[in-house]
Amino acid sequence: MNTQPEALLYNFNDPEQLRQIRRYLNRQKVKTRIVTAPEFLHPLGYLFEIPGFHPSSQFNLGSNFSDEMIVLKDFSSAQMDGFLAFFRENQIPPVALKAMLTPVTQHWSSVQLHDELSREHTLMHKK
């Protein structure tokens, strides 16, 4: 079974920030994929190339989001700590919407995950 860590990156519009993140992930031997709006309805399992997952047959007619988002797969806790420390040490603004792939979320589309993470983020930061 392939347990190489992987990362999906969404909507990173700052080229320097994206370059730094990709360079870090590459040095850590993390397979990285930039996900674009036309792919937002595919199941995350398909985007991570997990056997048995297929692309969505729906066309994306406006189910988009512009927030930065990161989805990680097969990261150990030490790898996760290192990734978060990399952001702090390099003064890279934190990405509010990030998640680890789970048996449940692998069936979700990027839009579904984005909406759930946005709801959770809003609830956690209410004053």
TrEMBL record:
<dbReference type="Pfam" id="PF12646">
    <property type="entry name" value="DUF3783"/>
</dbReference>
<protein>
    <recommendedName>
        <fullName>DUF3783 domain-containing protein</fullName>
    </recommendedName>
</protein>
<dbReference type="InterPro" id="IPR016621">
    <property type="entry name" value="UCP014543"/>
</dbReference>
